[in-house]
Design brief:
alpha/beta, TIM Barrel, Immunoglobulin-like, binds alpha-D-galactopyranose, 29% helix, eight-stranded parallel β-sheet
Length: 388
Amino acid sequence: MLFIIAVAILISFNSIYSLDNGLGKTPQMGWNSWNHFGCSINETIIRATADAFIATGLAQAGYNYINVDDCWASSRDQTTNYIIPDPIGFPSGMASLADYVHSRGLSFGLYSDAGIKTCAGRPGSYGFEDIDAQIYAQWKVDYLKYDNCYAGPTNKTIKERYERMRDALNRTGRPIFYSACEWGEMLPAIWFRAIANSWRTTTDISDRWISMLLNIDINDLFANFAAPHGFNDPDMLEVGNGGMTSTEYRTHMSLWSIAKAPLLIGCDVRQLSQETLEILRNSEVIAVNQDSLGIQGQKIRIDLEHDTEIWAGPLTDGSKAVLAFNRAHIINQTISVLFPDLGWKSTSRVKVRDLWLHKDLGEFQGNYTAFNIESHGAQMLKMTLITL
Ligand code: GLA
């Protein structure tokens, strides 16, 4: 009982004291270079990515940030301490790249680290927070992903190191989305709301079914701590990178959307298949992620015998987003959603819509049964109460 009260107090405390930069009312949407390109990144790719955002309609679908991850920086000027972009990959410099991205109506993000080096061994920001934040603002950077490698030599706590950059960003006067990436090690979901706009809850995702599931399962443990201006981040999307089937990628997108996870595309958007594009661009699935209530959907029922799950979460208009998920290798399973699990009566009449198909499935009383859900597949639904 005491534990429940303590958690309730923490949650309410948590939602009052959000990072006050006005950003991240809904989970961030955009693209990040790391999952597909790693260190092999340059300004030509970034410019072409911004172009592709427009040409493919991703921008129109709501994807906005174009974020350069690790390896854009090469060294620090010995006299001024200014960070120097890699002259081979980014010869035109970051200000001109940011201008280009802005000229496309998009926002521009960079990456740094709260230690002495980034994870790939480039200069970190520890001890240079103000000088780095000032130059980001000068370049018109809109987003900073802040990693946690090589922190040992600083001998400082995570709290101190992440707050130092938060304060430095605030001092610039430019609103810069602050994405904390310390891999969930110090349970940031519980206490990072006053520090960052989002926080990683897990280690790095890889382009495999098991990795994707592991990350969303861990992320789910912290569901109650997500709210507007501070969201849990189970890492970037792998949709389109080739390591999972289309069914699995659709499930990946469904889980990230219902869990209010950042939708940061991690594939090469210059060459998207039609299938990948349709997964990334589905307006009704994205609408669940971007719903202004900002409450993270959670796993609400598991059937261990069949290895199926129901995930659900409330939406602003009073309806529920629901996922009927066949996690098993078993093909074509039947999954029932019981309306009392959603907080409604067993006699309730409910309208059900398939969000992937943009199709009303009818009205149901007491429960809704999804048939033939393929292995690793999920039906993503919107359920609206008609009569209680
Ligand atoms: C860490 C982060 C990744 C990526 C790499 C870059 O592993 O968790 O998301 O930013 O560093 O080196």
